[in-house]
Write a structure and sequence with these properties.
mainly alpha, single chain
Length: about 90
């Protein structure tokens, strides 16, 4: 069974999660998700910050934004990680 989540699906869920947790949806938060989606591995907030700075030098993202985004409900992140990584392993 392929559980792959297309980026558009993940982004839609992410936007709703951001708004339902009282946070503002911004391009910076989308870049955090995109960076996690496009890179394999375990990342610290500092790793994510450095990857964004490397890949999107024109965009200003503060480390505090990364921390706030990563503190979204753990259940959502766990679900995303399980579905996303299990689908990558099937390829």
């Amino acid at each position: 069974m392929n559980k792959s989540l297309e980026y558009k699906e993940v982004l839609s869920i992410f936007k709703n999660l951001i708004k339902s947790n009282g946070l503002k949806y911004t391009k910076q938060r989308e870049l955090i998700l995109e960076t996690i989606y496009n890179n394999r591995g375990h990342f610290t907030p500092e790793d994510i910050y450095n990857l964004i700075k490397r890949d999107f030098p024109e965009v200003k993202v503060g480390i505090a934004t990364i921390y706030r985004t990563l503190t979204l409900p753990r259940e959502w992140w766990n679900c995303y990680i399980n579905l996303f990584w299990s689908s990558r392993e099937e390829v």
